[in-house]
Specification:
- The chain has ten helices and eight strands.
- It is of the alpha/beta class and 263 residues long.
- Strand 2, helix 6 and strand 3 form a beta-alpha-beta unit.
- It is globular, with a radius of gyration of 19 Å.
């Protein structure tokens, strides 16, 4: 029997509104507030930004303001404190806020032997915990500078947002030996178009208006998993729309790679 020479492949997945409902920055801020990291005005700010994100999509300027405020809030705190908060969020909040359909797609990639990487502007420590929770290969988030285990309130890397995600995917491809033309990417935001366009198989999940328009024009699959009016889409036309989109992805993965894995 000959050796399996099939190329390595990977799936890159955004976190907010793609894998997790809402904005992860708000989930983190809420738990940090509960533990006394900052005051009520900071929590209100995080809640407002989360609402704007859900309603209007991502805005690079808003992301920058959120990160700058977060850096100020965690400066002087020990890394282990934030990791502890992250574990609580992942074990409790994220478990109840995961989009099961997205998680199912990532599971399918894993079954086919593909690597799965989460890419998020959320701090690296929290993103890694979420990747561990869902069984992903790994994660890349925003890195915050530390000294002797204490955050110093400065970035140690660019914010993992927009073009930085595409750059990270290219670096991973180079380091781990796969071609981006053979890879997948999943996102809800037009800010991730550089990443989606960098791979051979882009998919829009819960897309904002701009990404929806680009996906339709480009013929990319679109999955709509959000709640409508506070309730899950009922069985029928509306629910069928996103189920059909999810089934398209499953069928494509199975048709293209399922059989080859069985040989």
């Amino acid at each position: 029997m000959g050796m399996n020479t099939s190329p390595k492949r990977a799936a890159f997945c955004d976190v907010d509104q793609t894998l997790v409902r809402g904005a992860s920055s708000y989930h983190l801020a809420r738990e940090l507030y509960r533990r006394g990291f900052f005051g009520l005005s900071d929590l209100w700010y995080a809640a407002r930004q989360s609402a704007l994100y859900v309603a209007c999509g991502e805005d690079p300027r808003r992301i920058r303001r959120i990160v700058e405020r977060a850096l100020h809030m965690i400066a002087g705190h020990h890394v282990d404190e934030v990791v502890s908060v992250g574990r609580h969020i992942v074990a409790d909040m994220y478990s109840r806020k995961l989009f099961e359909e997205t998680l199912g797609i990532l599971r399918r990639h894993e079954q086919l032997g593909h690597e799965v990487w989460l890419l998020s502007a959320t701090p690296q420590e929290v993103t890694e915990l979420l990747a561990e929770h869902v069984g992903a290969t790994g994660a890349l988030g925003t890195r915050v500078r530390r000294q002797d285990g204490i955050y110093v309130g400065e970035l140690a890397s660019p914010i993992m947002h927009g073009p930085e995600k595409a750059h990270a995917a290219r670096e991973l491809a180079r380091e781990r030996g796969f071609e981006l033309a053979d890879c997948w990417a999943y996102s809800d935001s037009a800010s991730d178009l550089p990443l989606l366009r960098a791979v051979g198989h882009p998919c829009a999940i819960n897309p904002d208006p701009k990404l929806r328009a680009v996906a339709r024009e480009s013929g990319w699959p679109i999955l709509e998993l959000r709640r409508a009016g506070g309730l899950l889409y009922r069985r029928g036309t509306r629910r069928g729309a996103y189920v059909a989109g999810g089934w398209w992805v499953y069928r494509y993965l199975r048709k293209r790679f399922g059989r080859s894995r069985q040989r």
